[in-house]
TrEMBL record:
Residues 43-294 form the Rhodopsin domain. The lineage of its organism: Eukaryota, Fungi, Dikarya, Ascomycota, Pezizomycotina. The keyword Metal-binding does not apply. This is Rhodopsin domain-containing protein. It is a multi-pass membrane protein. Keywords: Membrane, Transmembrane, Transmembrane helix. The chain crosses the membrane at residues 28-48, 60-80, 120-141, 153-179, 199-222, 234-259. InterPro entries: Rhodopsin_dom_fungi, SAT4-like. It comes from Hapsidospora chrysogenum (strain ATCC 11550 / CBS 779.69 / DSM 880 / IAM 14645 / JCM 23072 / IMI 49137) (Acremonium chrysogenum). The keyword Transmembrane helix applies.
């Protein structure tokens, strides 16, 4: 019979766990709502720029990722709401032997383990959908450039395919038969405890990190090879290199599970949702950044007027290309086009404008260099 002190401690622990779950639920659903809103803004911007008929595969792939992100959030919520944070891990052999199949805790642990397996599955699809969306966007970004960039993009698709198959096979084959993923007694071993499975955790992290680093290695070197001022390369580099934040979240998720197998999975679930949120934002960022800059233009103008008004007109962006901020370097809303087309004064570019060229001058200058090389051969 537990003492009054033990009962009080148990009640306090239950209250703390409930409060932590409420905080997680608020954070998880809020992040999902923001991610969906950002993706809607991106889609509306693309539709206004090119029309529904001209949407490209990356515009659809990002929604595949958002759908599975929604599923992941629902699963992460159900771990606490339906399984009370329990799974088939963190149990002694005696506790496993004593837990009867008709005990409510037994069913909670089985349910929690199944949710963990489903969570890893949705996690793989959503992240790799976002990666595929980014690669497809790079196709538009590098149109007209040296074929070496296309080869790197094609290699990226191959890398995505191989790594995704790798994580799926790891999830399916590291625990056989698969029903051992929710086995309670006897102990199925670490590989069959989905909340803390080392093979699954390390494989997902390695494949995720390698693909993210490769994706960043495509546009950033191209940007820094271009003949632009260093100061003008910083913001595009930050936008295109935001994938590093995904690696930070993935690392936090893995480390928390490994250092604290008891409470780590619940904390890792929170970091998993954050990672998916960051992945959504970074995938959409190159498209929506011009919109953000236009929205903040009054603030930028007031700041720049303090010290840069004397330099206005001294430099000018090459006509027909937009910078990372979506403008062409002029203070007005008019954008000049190639081939003598009439300039547009719309807040969002028309289908004939170069919205996709978010690196702007960097892409144009690199194209000129590639042309010079070909002419010199």
């Amino acid at each position: 019979m537990p003492t009054s002190s033990e009962q009080a401690d148990a009640a306090a622990a239950a209250a703390a766990a409930e409060a932590a779950f409420r905080e997680f639920a608020i954070e998880a659903w809020t992040l999902l709502a923001v991610a969906i809103l950002v993706t809607v803004v991106r889609t509306l911007a693309r539709v206004r720029a090119v029309g529904c008929a001209q949407l490209r595969p990356d515009d659809y792939l990002v929604w595949v990722g958002v759908i599975f992100y929604s599923a992941e959030t629902a699963l992460a919520y159900s771990v606490g709401a339906s399984a009370r944070g329990l799974a088939n891990n963190s149990m002694s052999d005696q506790a496993r032997a004593d837990l009867r199949t008709d005990d409510p805790e037994f069913q909670l642990r089985v349910t929690g383990s199944k949710i963990q397996v489903a969570g890893w599955s949705t996690y793989s699809v959503l992240l790799w959908s976002f990666k595929a969306s980014v690669l497809t966007f790079y196709i538009r970004l590098t149109e007209g450039l040296h074929k070496g960039y296309k080869q790197r993009i094609n290699a990226g698709f191959g890398l995505l395919a191989v790594t995704w198959v790798g994580v799926v096979l790891t999830l399916v084959l590291s625990c056989r038969p698969i029903h051992k993923y929710w086995q309670i007694h006897p102990d199925p071993g670490n590989a069959c405890q989905p909340a803390v499975s080392s093979p699954v955790i390390w494989t997902f992290f390695a494949m995720n990190a390698s693909t993210d680093l490769y994706l960043m290695s495509i546009p950033i070197p191209m940007l820094w090879k271009a003949g632009m001022k260093t100061s003008r390369k910083v913001v595009p580099t930050v936008v295109l290199g935001a994938g590093l934040l995904i690696l930070v979240c993935a690392m936090m998720r893995s480390v928390l599970i490994l250092i604290d197998p008891v409470n780590g999975p619940q904390l890792a679930g929170a970091w998993g949702v954050r990672e998916s949120f960051v992945a959504t934002i970074t995938t959409n960022l190159p498209i929506i950044f011009p919109l953000l800059k236009r929205s903040l233009k009054p603030l930028f103008s007031s700041i720049q007027s303090l010290g840069s008004s004397r330099k206005q007109g001294s430099t000018r962006t090459r006509p027909g290309f937009q910078t990372i901020g979506g403008g062409d370097g002029s203070s007005g809303g008019v954008r000049y086009h190639k081939r003598g087309r009439v300039p547009s004064v719309n807040h969002l570019p028309t289908k004939n404008e170069s919205e996709e060229r978010i690196i702007g001058n960097a892409v144009e200058m690199q194209k000129m260099r590639d042309t010079d090389k070909e002419d010199g051969t």
